[in-house]
Amino acid sequence: MLTPLITEIQRFCLHDGPGIRTTIFVKGCPLHCPWCHNPENINPKQEFYYHASKCSNCGQCLTACPSGVDNPEHDDCIGKTTDRSHCTSCFQCVSACRFGARETVGKFISIESIVQEAVSDRIFYQHSGGGVTVSGGEPLMYPEFTRDLTYRLKVKENVHVAIETSLFAEWHNIEPLLKYVDLFIVDIKTPDPQKHQHVIGGSLHKILSNLERLLEARATVRTHLPIIPGINDTSQDFEAYAEYLGQFANQLSGVDILPYHSYATGKYVQLGRSYQYLGVPDLPAQQLTPLVNALRQQGIREITLGGMVGSSPAVENVAGTRSLKPRRDYFSRPVYSPQGRGVVVTQR
Ligand SMILES: C[S@@+](CC[C@H](N)C(=O)[O-])C[C@H]1O[C@@H](n2cnc3c(N)ncnc32)[C@H](O)[C@@H]1O
Ligand code: SF4
Ligand code: SF4
Ligand code: SF4
């Protein structure tokens, strides 16, 4: 069985499905969305973060590195650069660093341990209608692992299971999950097949065919539409999305519009990678009103800006994208949302 490295088991998540959830992030993805806010989950292998704020410039990592990064032509700590082309991922620099400025990303955790950690928050799931979400990276890159994990969570532990996926996978690896996954959250990154192939690196046809098969099988499905400047933010894109999804208005449980945000910029730097969207401002939620209207006209059951939040998807019914109010989450902390994150804008 191909087993993924895990980058995080994140508790008390409010944006990855209904209620309070634990989200499990697997490392590895067959696609490469250049705006991805989880860049640490794209490469399936272990990497390291370099935390500049903790670095004392002691140079121990350079001395420890066997791969020539302490060669005189490299006059600086490799962690500070975006060029790790000489790096062989031996992580001797991580061991050498006494200041915690270098940190490995991704570790193997047994399915038993993942399940144990996830079910420790069962009480919160029960009170909020939450559960566990498998995300990443791409869970379907590890079909047997995901099948085994969701089987144990659903059948043995009886918790609500969601999966966040691109659906870029073979149907025979998706079908077995129908028994164990309560909610499929499916990302449609552009309605344009050519752009999908060239920018993201996978077939849109395969993804949509899998989506339609899930709907035929009567799975519970929401779609995520990440709206990315220069990729899928024109009125033609919005119309294409609405026209396609409108065919399934009665079958989809909802559509979540995710405005582009740049909060992962720092992670790209820490991973020593360049970020193609550097300087691109976050997309204001107001700009997405035409998409909301186009989807609404097609009769989509529920539309949110930013995804589901809190104890129930039906948390609040806000008439328009402008009337964004602070809300209260499960622990009565106000949830302010400049982008309209998690606001249900329409429900039928
Ligand atoms: C990181 S992906 C992981 C799961 C799966 N690989 C997928 O693409 O759905 C989780 C969600 O984050 C969204 N996302 C990624 N980068 C984003 C960004 N910069 N702004 C807004 N949403 C983003 C994706 O569109 C997807 O809905
Ligand atoms: S060993 Fe750690 S603290 Fe010292 S230079 Fe390298 S990263 Fe910075
Ligand atoms: S992980 Fe890369 S940078 Fe660090 S010591 Fe090994 S080769 Fe050098
Ligand atoms: S498919 Fe998901 S995890 Fe993979 S690069 Fe795109 S957004 Fe990131």
UniProtKB/TrEMBL annotation:
Ranges for domain Radical SAM core: 15-301
What Gene3D superfamilies does the record tag this protein with?
3.30.70.20, Aldolase class I
Domain 4Fe-4S ferredoxin-type per the UniProt entry, residue ranges: 46-75, 78-107
Q: Which SUPFAM superfamilies match?
A: 4Fe-4S ferredoxins, Radical SAM enzymes
Q: Which cofactor does it need?
A: [4Fe-4S] cluster
Q: Tell me the keywords, alphabetical order.
A: 4Fe-4S, Iron, Iron-sulfur, Metal-binding, Oxidoreductase, S-adenosyl-L-methionine
Q: Could you confirm whether the keyword Repeat appears in this record?
A: no
Asked whether the UniProt record includes Transferase among its keywords, one would answer no
- How would you summarize the oligomeric state and partners of this protein? Monomer.
Q: Can you say what this protein is called? A: (R)-benzylsuccinate synthase, delta subunit
Q: Which organism is it from?
A: Geobacter metallireducens (strain ATCC 53774 / DSM 7210 / GS-15)
Q: What's the gene?
A: bssD
